[in-house]
Amino acid sequence: MAINLQKGQRVTLDNSMKLALVGLGWQTNQYDGVDFDLDASAFLIGANGKCLRDEDFIFYGNLNSRNNAVVHQGDEVKGGDGNSDDEQIIIDFTKIPPEIEKIAVCVSIYDAENNHQNFGQVSSAYIRVAKLANEFDTVGEDQLRFDLAEEFSIETALVICEIYRHNGEWKFNAVAQGYQGGLATIVRNYGLQC
At 54, is the secondary structure helix, strand, or coil? Predict the structure, then answer.
């Protein structure tokens, strides 16, 4: 049975987990006839709190990190019902370069400013982590789930969680930190150019 987390909680991931599926889901309301396009992304971060290379930013335009340690499963432009994953990211912990200390998982609204959209118009958002048995497993066994209950009325991008290395173990931190300025703000925050 999966552990349900609240904002700010930290848990240690199962040490036997070599492959993890990170599933993100949400539900959006349609405003002014414009669909929401939410995008999941991941940043591989070094000890300095920044990405060490451009390819350490995984998103719809760069689906694979170096070594294929983190692989985005593709962009879902419509979003769903909040009951199933809209986008997924696979993490192979055995391939994470040793200089990477943290993986930040984010969600942003594509073209939010032009479409006058924000996370206050998004509901039933969640992230879940499932343990995959092998590379052919597409479902996995749920380990934890974090439902975003907070209202983000002006934010257009969120750092949902951090999966980080501590004393040889991988841990999960339920962050839920909002940003204005969309994905570009988070990209700059992690030391990359837009």
Answer: helix
**Angle in degrees, CA 128, 134, 137, rounded to 5:** 60
Contact assessment for residue 70 and residue 53, using Cβ atoms and an 8 Å cutoff = no
- CA–CA gap between residue 52 and residue 102 (Å, rounded): 12
What backbone phi and psi angles, to 5 degrees, belong to 140? 75, 180
Q: Is the sign of the CA dihedral 86, 87, 93, 99 positive or negative? A: negative
Structure tokens at 177: 């930190």
Convert the pLDDT of each residue in 84-105 to its tens digit.
Answer: 899 999 999 999 999 999 999 9
**Beta pairing class for 141-147 and 3-5:** parallel
pTM above 0.85, yes or no: yes
How far is residue 39's CA from residue 5's CA, in Å, rounded to a whole number?
A: 22
Q: How many residues does the chain have?
A: 194
Contact yes or no for 194/41 (Cβ under 8 A): no
Tokens at residue 139, please? 């479902």
In degrees and rounded to multiples of 5, residue 127 shows phi and psi of -135, 145
Which two structure tokens, joined as six digits, stand for 10?
């930290």
